[in-house]
């Protein structure tokens, strides 16, 4: 697989033995390759109408997604006018060669837009649960996917938080309760706030989650100065590296982490020969 440029990377101490998983989180902005601030205005029509560059941008994104084991995506479309009635989660899964995918529609605007989160995976989850996050304006959600043995699973949360600080505080309080039900956890997504935001204290004080490297800036993609995209992990998951990829096909940059699972937590490998084996979850 290829990527547009080398990664912005910070390496952590070498971990012990155990199965390694490569995780990636990316807000793909519905396939809009925003490269300057003024394009929020001049290219705003692309959020509601189809355009020829969308699938080409997503094809470039699929090239880097294929290097990872589990991917969480934000700002997708589940099939409406603006996406050419193509489910973009399914499209990226097929293009990047993922055998399993799942999408969560959080805001339905009929034929105009079907706002969604997405999950792409090389391992079959044992369970997937969707949650609607609290907020005055509905439309934010979370996906919880469990992997491995039911008595000792790896649990991943894929989320996209609100723009309002008050709403984010309520959403993180809600997520904290879910996180605390599990031992081996990773939480990934566009949280729309930095690790030092007051609402993030709710998550860090109420759960065992930590951010391996808190200075990985992802926004805006053309001049990243804010770290609002995160992959947080529980202490039982060793982290080998964390990095931001120089891949400008959105107004965010993708963030990735390689984790090492405890020796007693093993995910069975999935072997497939062709894209015909791919299926939704």
Unreliable sequence segments: 1-15, 271-278
How large is the radius of gyration?
A: 18 Å
Number of strands: 13
Give me the secondary-structure category.
Answer: alpha+beta
Q: How many helices?
A: 5
- In which order are the strands of the major sheet placed? 1-11-12-2-3-5-4-13
Overview of the structural elements:
With 281 residues, the chain is α+β, with helices and mostly antiparallel strands. It contains 5 helices and 13 strands. The chain has helices at 39-42, 53-65, 88-96, 165-179, 198-206, and strands spanning 7-11, 20-27, 70-77, 100-108, 114-121, 127-132, 141-147, 154-160, 184-190, 229-233, 238-245, 255-260, 279-280. The strands form 2 sheets. An 8-stranded mixed β-sheet has the order 1-11-12-2-3-5-4-13, covered by helices on one side. The protein has a 5-stranded mixed β-sheet with strand order 6-7-8-9-10, with no helix packed on it. Helix 2 crosses helix 3 and helix 4 runs parallel beside helix 5 (198-206). It is globular and about 50 Å long. The two termini are 24 Å apart. Mean pLDDT is 88; it is low at 1-15 and 271-278.
């Amino acid at each position: 697989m290829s990527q547009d440029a080398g990664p912005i990377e910070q390496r952590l101490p070498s971990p012990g033995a155990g199965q390694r998983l490569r995780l990636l989180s990316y807000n793909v902005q519905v396939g809009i390759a925003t490269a300057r601030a003024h394009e929020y205005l001049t290219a705003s029509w692309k959020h509601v109408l189809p355009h020829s560059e969308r699938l080409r941008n997503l094809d470039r994104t699929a090239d880097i997604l294929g290097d990872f084991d589990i991917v969480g995506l934000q700002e997708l479309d589940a099939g409406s006018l603006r996406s050419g009635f193509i489910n973009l989660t399914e499209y990226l899964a097929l293009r990047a060669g993922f055998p399993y995918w799942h999408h969560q529609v959080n805001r339905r605007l009929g034929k105009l837009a079907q706002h969604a989160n997405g999950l792409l995976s090389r391992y079959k989850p044992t369970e997937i649960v969707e949650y609607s996050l609290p907020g005055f304006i509905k439309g934010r959600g979370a996906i919880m996917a469990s992997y491995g043995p039911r008595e000792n699973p790896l649990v991943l949360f894929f989320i996209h938080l609100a723009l309002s600080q008050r709403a984010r505080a309520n959403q993180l309080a809600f997520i904290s309760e879910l996180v605390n039900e599990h031992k081996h956890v990773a939480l990934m997504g566009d949280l729309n706030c930095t690790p030092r935001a007051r609402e993030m204290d709710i998550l860090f004080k109420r759960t065992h989650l930590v951010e391996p490297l808190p200075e990985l800036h992802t926004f805006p993609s053309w001049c990243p100065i804010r770290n609002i995209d995160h992959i947080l992990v529980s202490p039982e998951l060793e982290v080998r590296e964390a990095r931001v990829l120089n891949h400008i096909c959105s107004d965010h940059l993708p963030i990735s982490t390689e984790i090492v699972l405890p020796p007693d937590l093993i995910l069975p490998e999935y072997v497939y020969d062709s894209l015909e084996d791919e299926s939704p979850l």
